Each structure stands twice: as structure tokens, then as C-alpha cells.
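Hey, quick one: can you model this chain's 3D structure?
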Amino acid sequence: MDFSFVILQFLTGLAYASSLFLLAVGLSLIFGALGIVNFAHGSFYMLGAYLLYWVVHGNPEGLWWGLVVVAALGFVVGAATERLLLRPVYDRPEHYQILLTYALLLVIEDGVKLFFGAAYKSLGPPAALAYPVWIAGAPFPAYYFVQIALAMLVAAALWFFLQRTRSGALVRAATQDREMLEALGINVPRLLTAVFALGIALATLGGAATLPMQTVSPGIAVEAVISAFIVVVVGGLGSVWGALLGAFLIGEIQAFGVLVLPEFAIAFVYLLMVVVLLVRPWGLLGRPPAVRT
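Sure thing. Here's the predicted structure for all 293 residues.
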């Protein structure tokens, strides 16, 4: 195993981690602000991939504007979902929310099959990224760098939004004491709708951005939501930076695990999750439940 091969595996793991982060960060954001475990999150990720293929009519050259359109559509769909379906069950027991979001996953999955068909969809990268980048004498897909850069951009934008804007401060306050925000005259329901819509927009953006890396089918929704939950369990449910750390660890474990025991590479990921649950049940960067209000 030479140095160039190790670098390529690391970059491959980083690209996979970037995809996981875009998938999981919206789930973590939604739970942190709304306290909802959104089982339908993977279906929105899948929907983003299909929407991109539909918006650009299968033409890779429309990728850039297609990503913007898909993210905007995801925001609108997320806002409508929260307003029409989730808000009425906020005051009911948690199993209502779980059953509702799981049912929504099945509805969206069947809806995609009905509208787009059950066949696999794929979309190559634009012509400018169709050729590999040579690193230490070995080829590496150029689009993977776009995926990595997009995840870094999203992480930086979320940090700026949450830490340097008034709206971000309100979101952070909503995770601590909604009643106080309402007493201060803040329209909390509208704020929560915007947070949920942002989380869904990130999920659809993640699914769309991943399409040039892999083919998709309606069945990817369940796989995606499982991957998202593993990331947030490792990093900490409700922590944006925990999602980033969890995605990085899982991406690299997957990339190098196939070199050690290819048949059991996925087992290393679940082993990491088990260890984290035993040592820090609330995740590496999460907060103990007693801290939440």
C-alpha cells in the first residue's frame, strides 16, 4: 500500500462523508429545534435526486442551476409538510410523530415510483468535471472535489447563520426555551416552519448533489434514513457539528474498512455506533437529555 493509494482512499472517504453530512445535517437541525425524529428524512433525500434528474431532463450540463432549483423546491415542500402535517401533532405523544413521518416516507417512496417510475436513475457530471484529477500519479474523480467543497460551504454557511445572525440566535434559543421566545413576541410557529423547511432543503440538496456519484432508486430512501440516523447517533442528535464529525468518522471508516475486511466493512460503522452509545449515549458532540428543556 503506497502513499498515493492512502491519499486516494482518504479523499474517497471524505467525498462519502460529505454526502453523509448533507444527508444528516438537516435531520440533526430539525431535531435540535423541533424535537422531532423525522423518519421521512431519507425520502426527501431520495426525492432531491429524482427532482434534479427531472429538472435538468437528464442533461448533466444543467447540474449547477438544477441544484439551486431542487434546494428551493425542497424548502417549499418542507414548509408545506411542517405546516399541514406535523404542526397538528406537536402536542400529541411522540409515537404519533414517529408513525406520521414513517408513513410519509412510504407515501413519498410510492409517489416517486408513480411519477418517475421504479427504474434506476443516473446523471453523469458536467463535461468540465468528466475527466479525473491525477493525484500522485493516480486518477481521482473531479466531481468528488465538488461534493467535498459543497459540504464545506454548507457547514460554513450554517455556522455563520447560527452564530452570527439574529435568526440563527432565535433558532438556538428555540432549542432551549420556546415559551420564553413566545413571551418576547417571537412568532415561534413560523420560526419552526422555517427550520424544518431548511432541514428538508438540505436533504433534497444532498440527494441531488449525490446523483452524479451514484445511481438512485426509490429504495434508497430507507437506506438513506438509516445512514442519517447512524451519523447523528455517533455525532450527537441535534448537533450540527456532531453531524459533521459523525459523517467524517463514518466516511473514513468505510473507506479504509474495505481494505482490512471488505466483507465486514459496514460492521466497523455499526461497531463505532455501539461504542459511542456505550460511552456517550448522547453522541460525541451531543448534550445529555437533562440539559434540554
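One thing worth noting: The mean pLDDT is 90.
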